[in-house]
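Subject: Predicted fold for Tetratricopeptide repeat-containing protein, 237 residues

User T.R. writes:
Posting the sequence so we have a shared reference for the thread.
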Amino acid sequence: MRQTALIHAAVFSVLTGAVASFGVAGGPAFAQSAPGAPGAAPVMPDATLIAPAPGSETESSPPLVDPDLDPTLDADAARADRLDALFADLAEGDEAAADKAESQIRRIWNRSGSDSMDLLLTRGREALEHEDLTTALQHFGAVTDHAPDFAEGWNLRATAFYLRGDLGQALADIERVLALEPRHYGAMTGLAVILEQLGRDADALTAWREAARINPHIEQAQDAIARLATSVDGRGI
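User M.O. replies:
I've generated the structure tokens; pasting them so everyone works from the same file.
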């Protein structure tokens, strides 16, 4: 039986509460800068936490199913089955198997099913690489407008909002990502980073632990858990 991935209840509670505190849930974007210099964008320890850098994960690869060969196949079901198998490899495999699984997971996540949306996503990534956040947000916004069920559009837009210092909108977009892709460990780590920056160490620890449960190979998650567990739980891992 397929194991259905669900956001850990504690993480979901933390996320919805954090989004509500910024006043962005169900409403227009509310720009909120991170603590520090007015208007300064926060420094992210690793920008790939929320948005994987362009590379092998965006390379073209064969479709999961070929409807011309078997029109009875359900593409969504095939995608879900494939992701279940890959996440099992990610959680239980050795380093080599985990690296391969992670690359394939990212490839699947980066497929919108639309050439035009994929092009917008690519252009947004390029703008993000050149630190042109305004252009990146325009491209990612077009993706989320026209393909609202495509999690990676929200994920990359969350990255751009985060880098601009709009933590409230970044959290709202992360909420959308995790509603669509509950096992999106990149978005989960992004959530943890933001919560820690906001001084919500206990909530950040919950998010880091969930990210590490999904993907035990996130080195930064293990480091963060060790650091925060001492202060939050009064002990190490």
